[in-house]
Amino acid sequence: MNLNPHDIKLVAADMDGTFARSDYTYDVARFKAALSRMKAAGCQFVIASGNQYYQLRALFPGYYDELSFVAENGAFVKEKEELVFSAEMSRAAILKVLELCKAHPEVKNVMCGLESAYCERGTVSQEFFELTNIYYHRLKWVDDFAQVDDQILKFAPTVPAEKTAYYCDLFHEKLKGSLVPTSSGHGSIDLIIPGCHKAAGLKRLVKRWGIAPEQCAAFGDGGNDLEMLKYCGSGYAMENAPDDVKEAADFVCPSNNEDGVLVTLDQLFPIG
Question: Rounded to two decimals, what is the model's pTM?
């Protein structure tokens, strides 16, 4: 569906491989100008990512409170400065994941909570911790995941890249619906509460704002964007996205390194 720009009331964009370039920059001045035009048109901008809220908001210093966030793949939803929703994983599901990862020591696991994300000593390296810290700005070492006192939103295991599909299938089979694996590829998997994906997060905002899915546009490049691209009236896959994501979308826009989201926003909300 191709919407008249005046009908678009929500634009959602994934971060890694979509909104941000590969070096994690974006054209700040160009985005701020587009955001101003979107506001004038009564359109909200939402960052919808598997990453942690605290990491995402750091990319918009001084104006993150003008944006809304669907973080942790839908497990954390914030409308500007108001927390709308945070998921809570059951104790049984947590213990099941810990047991499964213990049986497969090549899986490097990150536990993602409301207050912080966590790495377990003895199971991952300092180098892994520092890499994870890029995506989870609140990250702590713990001795035992099972002893963490926090509201757990999701797990983010990293597996050998060539085994991504194998582990997605394994998690799907072993967790039997208590958690659902979703992947953005390259060895990154999120284990999410069933029904708790990016589209579900957007749905909460759509309801609050009294708009319809047909009035929404979304940008994404990975498997964890599929529900969101299908849910929104206009779904844009990035040129760098795999074929299955492009097939799920209505349109293909330039790659993240060509500022595809901003190029499209300039077309949807033209200057002058």
Answer: 0.92
